[in-house]
Design a protein that fits this description.
Layout lengths: L10 E3 L5 E3 L9 H8 L5 E5 L6 E5 H4 L24 H7 L11
Antiparallel strand pairs: 1-2, 3-4
């Protein structure tokens, strides 16, 4: 008959340790469903990202993903002397570039 969309009037603990309020029956009916729901957990947590070593606030889902994305500004000193202003996750994939008016790049 399809997924049960009945809303439960309770809190359910997810595998990540956070709770979800008023989930549908289908989203918490078994361990696989709960794991799937935990991958969308929006609770804010503090996390130390590797290899950049930035410690910042992110979502639980991002922290527990296969490839967590660092939301911090890179801040690495570039050859021109300015600091990289790109998001850490961007410069790691696209490379550093000076975003300031700069005659030295």
């Amino acid at each position: 008959c399809g997924p049960c969309l009945h809303v439960l009037d309770e809190e359910v603990i997810l595998p990540c340790g956070h709770t979800v309020t008023s989930p549908t029956c289908d989203s918490v009916c078994d361990a696989t469903s709960r794991k799937k729901l935990a991958k969308k957990c929006r609770e804010e947590v503090t996390f130390a990202f590797l290899p950049c070593n930035h410690r910042c606030t992110t979502t639980c889902a991002n922290m527990n993903s296969e490839h967590p994305v660092c939301p911090s500004i890179c801040g690495e000193t570039l050859a021109c002397g300015h600091k990289c202003q790109l998001r850490c996750s961007s410069c790691k994939t696209m490379g550093h570039s000076c975003e300031q008016k700069c005659e030295r790049t």
